[in-house]
Amino acid sequence: MQHVTLNNGVRMPILGFGVYQIPADKTEQAVSDALAAGYRLLDTAAAYGNEEAVGHAIKNSGIPRQELFVTTKLWVQDAPAQDNTRRAFETSLTKLGLDHVDLYLMHQPYGDVYGQWRAMEALNREGLARAIGVANFSPDRLLDLILNNEITPQVNQIETHPFFQRNPDHDLMREHHVQHQSWGGFAEGRNDLFTHPVLSDIGEAHGKSVAQVVLRWLVQRDIVTIPKSVDPDRMAQNIDVFDFELSGDELARIAVLDTGETLFFDHHDPEMVAWLSKRRLDS
Q1: Among 57, 111, 191, 231, whose Cα sits 20 to 30 Å from the Cα of 273?
Q2: Residue 226 near residue 17 (C-beta atoms within 8 A)
Q3: Catalytic residue among 20, 39, 48, 114, which?
């Protein structure tokens, strides 16, 4: 497995397993299958409602804790966010059955962002979160957080796929040593991704699937990716992307697919901001 080194020296697998939208009653088996296939990065969130199942799979795997890289995420917190953030973190840790996480992400750029971040900085200093970062932060919000706080986020997890390649975001993150991580790498199959002629043609040239081409494209851009599947065969295929390389011409063909727009929802849309900001989790 290839790794990236975060700005605080922590090593993170470049390819892992995400559990977004996997029902809680199916998550334990899915994570167990993923661990058996060789995945060591697991990505969950309080908002996914399946942290406990992830924890059960980890406990029953027999894999030493130090070999795993576990990420979970903080949902939007009201002021006083510093107290609420610690309480939410402790709830996640209990559900996971762990004494620390490897990466704790602020899931949305809303609520008392500064209070949340300062509480996360404290968790990092205490060793409860080996690395801290954010998700869904646009370049302006990310830079504001960097310039006005002590710890620069180690990671920013954002929608990234061939139809929304996030080049300006990527360049800013690289400049400030923030690791770019993708969610939605397969665009959930939208725009006919899995049958797209350009991606299919590239896959045929390498004897690989479209999914493998997309994951290889992300890896070659040094973007951490967390594909999801509940099919063990697909899991094995998704992790098998380190034995080929896309050429400069192939990368250029994929670059043309970029629309520069989200395929899911816009974090600048007032209605979406209102919905995400009002949603609260039981803790």
Answers
A1: 191
A2: yes
A3: 48
pLDDT exceeds 60 at position 283: no
The structural domains of the chain, ordered by start, are: 3-278 (3.20.20.100)
CA dihedral 263, 266, 271, 272 (to 10 degrees): 90
Provide the percentage of residues in the chain whose pLDDT is more than 70: 99
List the structure tokens of 128: 């409860």
Structural contact between residues 194 and 186, judged by C-beta atoms closer than 8 angstroms: yes
CA distance 193 to 211: 9
DSSP strand pairing (17-18 vs 11-13) = unpaired
Segment 66-115, tens digit of pLDDT: 999 999 999 998 778 888 999 999 999 999 999 999 999 999 999 999 99
Q: Tell me if residue 48 is catalytic.
A: yes
Q: Taking the alpha carbons of 125, 129, 130, 133 in that order, is the dihedral positive or negative?
A: negative
Main-chain phi, psi angles of 75, to 5 degrees: -80, 170
pTM of this prediction?
0.96
